[in-house]
Amino acid sequence: MGYPRGVPAGRLEDTPAFRACLDIPSSCRSLALGSQTPSLTGTIPTEVGLLTNLVDIVLSNNQLTGTMPVDFMQNVGILRELDVSDNRLTGNPMVNFGMFCRGLVRVDLRSNQFSGEVGDTLQECVDLVFFDISENQFSGTIPPSIGNLVSLTRLHLNDNLLDGTIPNTIGRCSMNEQLPGCEDPTLGMGNLQLIQLQNNDLVGTIPSTVASNLDLRTLDVSFNPRVNGSLPDSLASLNNFRNLDADSTGLEGQLTAPLREKFSSIAHRVSLCNTGYTFSRDFNEDGRFTLIDGVTEWHPVPFVTPFFNEGEFVGNETVNNAAVHYVNVSTECPLA
Predict the structure, then answer these.
(1) pTM of the predicted structure, to 2 decimals
(2) Terminus-to-terminus CA distance in the chain, angstroms?
(3) With 60 as the cut, is the pLDDT of residue 151 above it?
């Protein structure tokens, strides 16, 4: 038994949907009260814990406050989806997360006021496909046990207070054990398609094992000034990789030949503004590399539309009917 969105709002416990669930708890499978008008207010009542057959809880885009009740965390046993995003909830829901997260496929805690450490209890959540705790105040390190989440495809840890290194387990390891740190064949493959780590205080290098997520499409480590070193060549092995944002990090150097070849072979978007990476005004060998307003982009042949930056136009030519190299002077990205 599920109940439609759009019912009269106020306090969660006063909504017809919630009252109906309490009348027949064993029949209540869905509590979908996201984006109410007017918004739900008050706290999440402990009676939610009585609804032990809930499959999904969607309370997003309201004005709920307080913490996630312990009874709810412990007693809802077959939950597949939990979405309390865009509220004003506080506390640390990750403390007891491992006690009820088996079976959970989608967790969205985005845009609240949660705080504290993520912790190792996340390792129990082996069925997770989508995990979003972005835009909160979580602190501490990214737990290495995140590598246990073998089903995870989308990981959003951005816009928090996380520090420490990016664990090499974030990608687990592919069956190609040539990557450093992948010598243990039992680690298996990762399935992440999107990794968002931007706007934290992470340190150290991007581990080459991130490329063990063979279907990785997007990696964002921007605005972590203490992330350093250079981009791992292992990214060049990813067939579906399209988007890399490393703006305002401590990365430095020049793109290696494997990465230049990879990124120039198909449309990619790679942003390295305010880093130590340098770029040449000269044509690349394949004639496809461009630097546009501090954003590096690679375009397929046969033509690239010219771009301008503050009225200054630098290049617009064709070479053997191939795409051309444009460079617009940018104060944000150094030119060699």
Answers:
(1) 0.80
(2) 64
(3) yes
